[in-house]
Every structure is written in C-alpha cells, then in structure tokens.
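@channel sequence for tomorrow's demo:
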Amino acid sequence: MITLSNLEVEIKLKVSGIEEIKSQLKRLGFSLIDPEYFESNIVFDTPDGELKQKGCLLRLRQKKNTGILTFKKPVSHSKRTVDYKIREEIESRVSDFNNTNEILLALGFKVYFIYEKYREVYQKNSIIFTIDRTPIGNFIEIEGREKDIDEVAGNLGYTKKDFIVESYYTLFRKEKLSGFMTFK
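structure tokens (generated this afternoon):
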C-alpha cells in the first residue's frame, strides 16, 4: 500500500538567478531548514541493468555526515505524470556511508551513475523546496501536492510547460555528456 509519506510528487525547474529565487521564497513565507551543503549520490544497479529496465532506482546519498539509502519504485503511469514525477520512495538513514557502499558492491550491485550537487532546502507547510547547484546548471525542485506545486511555481513565474520531470541522469545525458555528473 502506498502511503502519502512514501509517495513523492515533484518537479524540477531550470533557473539562473538563485539569489532572486531566495528573495521570492522569503516573500512567499518559506523558511530555510537546511543551509547549503554538498551532496554526493551513487546510483546502483544490477550488472544487467534490471533496476533501470524496471524504472526503479537504488541510491546511496551522502549528505553532510549522514548516509541515506533510497529505493524508488517506477514512476506512476497516469495522465497527471505528464506534468509531475510521482513515485513511491522508501528511505532509510545508514550510520556508515562507506560500509553501506561496500555492502551494496559485495551483494553484486554495480555503480551505475554518480552525481553531485550543492543543495539548500526550504519549507512552507508540507511543501519542500530545494535549490540545487549542479555541474549542468542550477535547478529548483518543488515537492508536495500537485496544486501546491502549481501555486508555488506560478508565484515564481513558471507554468507547467517549464516543469521538468526527468532525473539528473537523464538531464546529464541530454547534455551529451558521459561519465559521472561530478564537480571537477
């Protein structure tokens, strides 16, 4: 059974003026809940790519001194997912990032993709708003109910035609880049 706490509904938007976005967030009543930090993400798959083929994602994230292991089920295939990325997500904190990485490798998983970003997190009620500085540009993510996403994006001057539902992996490949999305 999918519960609201496990269901992720989000969009990305490509942005240029981060400082302007921060000013607008303050005006809209968002609070900074996590100042900018560096984040490293390792995406794993089976040697034959079974998880990707099924539309699943297994990720180990290092955020500050915390490790987070995440499994995402396939994106929902409904009419509304044209505009929003909707999928069930299961997360668990891990006490040792490096040992968890070693366990996944020992179980036979392979590193599929690595991506890095500098992230800052804001919140207003149940809406989570992140600002991501990545090697392929600056993005914001808005996570919450569809109507809340639409309202916040609209208040920032964006419409559904601006919504991005692709993963950072897909966006990186669209840039015709190879290897991993890491800062040099």
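heads up for whoever presents: The chain has one domain: 7-174.
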